[in-house]
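Chapter summary example.
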Amino acid sequence: MRVLVVDDEPQIVRALVINLKARHYEVDAAPDGATALRLAAARHPDVVILDLGLPDMDGVEVIRGLRGWTRVPVLVLSARQTSDEKVEALDAGADDYVTKPFGMDELLARLRAAVRRAEPGGHSEAPVIVTTPSFTVDLAAKKVNREGRDVRLTPTEWHLLEVLVRNTGRLVSQKQLLQEVWGPSYGTETNYLRVYMAQLRRKLEADPSHPRHFITEPGMGYRFEG
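The structure predicted for these 226 residues follows.
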């Protein structure tokens, strides 16, 4: 498993290289966007860890450059805090976003999840039955069962649930959810998402006010955790 680390901070690169190699990943490192794009083309990494603040170009440009020819998972690692910048990276094709300072364990867990989704049989061919401690989702039968009873969902609730479950563990941007569930002309009606997520939590979460499975990433989107 080959990882491309793109960051201009030597201490972060060193920490990532040490931790990744200790877990038997092969690691390439690039200090800027141009080197990153060259290395990606030459070495074909299985996953990219990318800082947005690079000396020669914005990390979003690197994502767009990669997306021109590869679907390699891109995990953004950045000190930028504003949701607009995070959403821009996700909409450009990033798979996930971790904010600096970060916990190494969380970063590695997100990395493993991104790689799993990209593998044959990953989220594009998601398991047809997803089981959580609280409920079970049968994607093929379009059914949800909680405590032995089928849960009635509206078509919109089901569609929203299906998109999130097929992307388990991945942050799905508000714009992506709106366009997948309501259509391509939607993208800013975040109040729709709030209403329907509240309904899903009420029907499926053990404690809707403290959700375990339907997680809000404020200003960015939602994540389903199994």
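To summarize the output: Residues 121-126 have pLDDT under 50 and may be disordered.
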